[in-house]
Amino acid sequence: MNRFKAFLKRKDIEISLKRYGIDALGAMAQGLFCSLLIGTIINTVGTQFRIPFLTTGVATVSGVEYTVGGIASAMSGPAMAAAIAYALKCPPLVLFSMIAVGFASNALGGAGGPLAVLFVSIIAAECGKAVSKETKVDILITPLVTIGIGIALSWLIAPPLGRAAMWLGNLIMWATEQQPFVMGILVSVLVGVALTLPISSAAICAALGLTGLAGGAAVAGCSAQMIGFAVISFSVNGLGGLVSQGIGTSMLQMGNIVKNPRIWIAPTLASAITGPIATCLFQLRMDGAPVSSGMGTCGLVGQIGVYTGWVNDVEAGLKASITAFDWIGLILISFVLPALLSLLIHAGVKKLGWVKDEDLKLVG
């Protein structure tokens, strides 16, 4: 047993929730951002501004024509797998081999591909690390083991994992349609909390394929966390803190939350309020890429995703036009209400003596 533990340590194979549930999951979201999400944004920009280079096909593969954004989106599987391998500190031969593994697991996982990529990539990457540089023909053995195990696992477990992810995602979306008030609160709070925790709300939403009203609630919850923390900490963090949290990430407050969890009250209660307002009053839907549901105001990706969904719905004939009410709802849910509600609730929390401004000071 000691020899096995020593081997794992030598290979930097750390079987832990942090390594797989935080590092790998977070990296997967970055891979999605740099492929599917950017591809979607490129397509939207090209269509809305009528840019020929972005709307015409630049490559044809097996009879399918791809635009610039289409190529980026099609590479989501390889991008996620490579990002996961990077987070797991894989040596070069393993890292490069993961491109094939990511393509296979994402394709075989169907609509729930991101979850399949996560599981398959972790196992394939760790197996590749285990054999890396253990033989004199490393350049053959390491890719063979990594790709072989990755493709075999993709064939075996990617389809059921994908179906399970989509079943759960569809259940959440169905429940939100049936009970928009209750589910608006639950989805908004839970996804918003996940965004602030050192895990990836974007990857979770992508893995579950969370769109529709549930996606809109997720956008509301994430926005409430980011804008909420940004405004209630403005007095101590200034403009830099406002920007870094408001369009960066509320995860920057995680260290302060550990010291005083009560600073989390205002943004979380704000998300519990904006979630049902989004689902019941404005019927805010995320019909863009599911990963956008878990991004909130980070780079305005959540809002761009909602807008992309509007555009797609108009083109498909599902929506007559983008109305002023749509824009008012998006702006109120994403920015105005989170700021006002968080400031009001935070003032009450401060009056109770539970929180001081210094508790929200960012370090560094």
Explained architecture:
The chain has a two-stranded antiparallel sheet. Helix content is 73%, strand content 2%. The chain is mainly alpha-helical. It is globular. The protein folds into two domains: 163 residues, no CATH class; 182 residues, no CATH class. The protein is built from 16 helices and two strands.
Name the descriptors.
single chain, 364 residues, mainly alpha, 2 domains, two-stranded antiparallel sheet, 73% helix, globular
Secondary structure elements and pairings:
Blueprint (H helix, E strand, L loop, with lengths): L1 H9 L6 H32 L3 H4 L3 E3 L2 E3 L1 H7 L1 H12 L4 H17 L4 H19 L6 H41 L1 H17 L4 H8 L3 H21 L1 H13 L7 H6 L5 H17 L19 H16 L7 H28 L13
Antiparallel strand pairs: 1-2
Helix pairs in contact: 2-4, 2-5, 2-10, 2-15, 5-6, 5-7, 6-7, 6-8, 7-8, 7-10, 8-9, 8-11, 9-10, 9-11, 9-14, 11-12, 11-14, 11-16, 14-16
